Amino acid sequence: MDDSRTVQWRRDPTTSRTVRVLWSLGVGTFFAAIVLIVFWRLFDLTGETGGQSIVVAVFAALVVTILALAASGNTERHLERLTTRLSVTNPTGTGLRRATDAALGTIAMLAVIGTLMGIGRLVVEFGLLEGAGPFTGLAALTLPLALVAIALSVFLQSVGTLDLEERRLYLYDPDEAVDLEHIEGVSVYRIGDAAVLSLEYAQPDGKYVPGPRRLVVPPEVAREVKGAVGTRS
């Protein structure tokens, strides 16, 4: 192994599909809950004026527009055309990708939560069950699950550099440097396109050595770290 090499990696929504999906669905769930509350509020308010069809049409048009923008080859340009007359700053680059992911996650969770609530209402109307408790409960359960999804997306993210010459592991966001000489053992657990590194630190003179005990990195980085620790002199 060439000890002068450095190995860099980045796991975030732009490079990992798993992180991207978890973040999108997690954030989208909360947006979906807000959208549903607004939708039903407007739907009820317009019931006496006969404007319910307009509310449905507006929301359907927004969903179709978002899907069309996401599916287009140049989302940024099409978005700029739509907002030409509005004094707003359009997101670009990473910001646009995150906004698109959040919007798609919102639509996906709107479908899930809306379906559960719709089934619950039908069950009540046809008297199939006493109340819509199970379906309402499942819809409400999406909120804590969304928190879990967001937490997992954060845990699965990592950015860093393995410097084999300095025998150090540099982590960013937050910044941290780990001396490989302080690591006694490394175990690797593969999960899809990622690997969970469990690091065992030495305790010289019984002193605690600060540093991450678990890291989620690409499999090739995990192999490099394990090899570097295993071949130290």
TrEMBL record:
Residues that span the membrane, as ranges: 21-43, 49-71, 102-123, 135-159
Record's keyword terms, sorted: Membrane, Transmembrane, Transmembrane helix
The keyword Membrane appears for this protein: yes
Keyword Membrane: yes
Protein name: Uncharacterized protein
Organism listed in the record: Natronoglomus mannanivorans
